[in-house]
Amino acid sequence: MEALKQELKENIIEQLNLEDMSVEDIANDDLLFGDGLALDSIDALELIVMLDKNYGIKLTDPKEGRAIFETINTMAAYITEHRSK
Amino acid sequence: MNSKYNISSFCHIKNNRVSLNGSVIFNEEHPNFSDFIKAAYKTQNTKYPKFFKMDNLSKLAFLAADILLKKEQLDIEKENNIALVFSNKASSLDTDIIHQKAIQDKDNYFPSPAVFVYTLPNICLGEISIKYKLYSENSFFIFERFNAEHLMSYTNSLLETNKAKSVLCGWVELEGENYEAFLYLVSNEGEIKHNKQNIITLYNT
Predict the structure, then answer these.
(1) For chain A, N or C: smaller number of CB within 10 Å?
(2) What pTM was estimated for this model as a whole?
(3) Nearest CA-CA distance, residue A81 and chain B, Å
């Protein structure tokens, strides 16, 4: 699970172009939206694509994303349970 | 046609060089546009993380506009009535091609929303408007080449009809590694008369 969390942080930084941020800047329980990393709605869509492309998880209801993408912890837990690749 | 308006400042970005009012403010060789524009942006001390999420056309337009508007020392808590009138030849083709590649292979179909949102040239106007809180008129024209006459008459029309207090206008062209931005600010201020000949002269500076 720790390796997955590390991988998620690296992918988020690279795919969302968080230029001035490093893996060490993101805590596992930091909020990804709002007061945390301040990701926006387009970032949320990118995360949905990332789940599909990297882990074979298709979110059919975008509202599900709110809970899944809350923190690195919640993302890693969901991916571990639902991944097909 | 003589104009009662003036050009108060102008900015060029091309050939690994950024200049403001004819003076070079950044000149560094970089292997590609992405590295060049990032390096140029970092010298401006703008601190706007969204810059890195923009496509290349928006980065080019944003940086040129930011250099000019920063000089104006605008109060960005207030509404600033500066219209934007931009133009180019390639539209958003650079980003359109990136998006097309992402949807070409039906077995590997993962279009990026962050790329798709930039598949219109006027998105760069939105980026500038968000940063500087501009709720003003904006237009993006596609021309075969730089069209001083059209930019001048459209800008004068906006000013004469009080649609804007000043107009940031010009050319932002990007296709692959070929890029060129020439933006200038027109208002009652400044010493260079806003006429076709002066616009062409500055463009060719």
Answers:
(1) C
(2) 0.93
(3) 22
